[in-house]
Please model this.
Amino acid sequence: MKLKILVAASALLASGVSIADSYQSEVGAIAVRTDIDGVSSKENAYGISGAYYFDAVKTSNLPLAEAAFLGKNSNAHAQAVRSSWDGEHNNFYELGAEFYIPENFLYVDAGVLRDTGKGYTDNDWYTAVGITPIDGLLVSTKYYHDDGYDANIKAKYVTALGAGEFINVEAEFVDGDDSTYKAIGGDYYFDNSFSVGGKLENVYSDNAYTVRTRKFFTEQFSGELSYTDAPNGNIIMAGASVRF
Model:
């Protein structure tokens, strides 16, 4: 089973007034600090990510963090992450595209991966297929070429609660050859710009707990922060993004 976990941290200071109600591109900065129990060295990771939407993403009356998901906006996406620990470096790259086919309620995501480090290079590709049977709900399953197919399912549902408030609920299950991975999480949107949430993950009978928050200072600029308490250490993450 392949489990790829990318976490990161960055900082953003932004102010101003925005009247925009749509965007077509987004670029983010990422970094991470991982503290492993009993190890003096800390692992750091830094990177960038981006997405280009083939049609403008409408944000009016929607939670800004979920606008592209709720609008079923097809896109091309990419990311690059560099991590370092105890003098060793690792580089991870991803390039992909996801498509929503509203007439048939179908969803397809596909991409290529490259992972490089000292003395090794690993290339892979993946594809995911799913359905969007009702507004705000996506159910999908994913296949990695190198590992073959492990039975897995992922679901995400976003809905309005009224008075400008929203909720996001996510769940994932992977039945791999060497372990079973389970996760459930969610976010509460106090308004369209601010959310607080969390996630519970279980693998090898161990639990990891995450608390997280994201704030849009304007419709273009956002910052996020999370803390993960894992069985063998902890991770502090922050991120920032800009839309245009």
Summary: Confidence is low (pLDDT under 50) at residues 1-19.
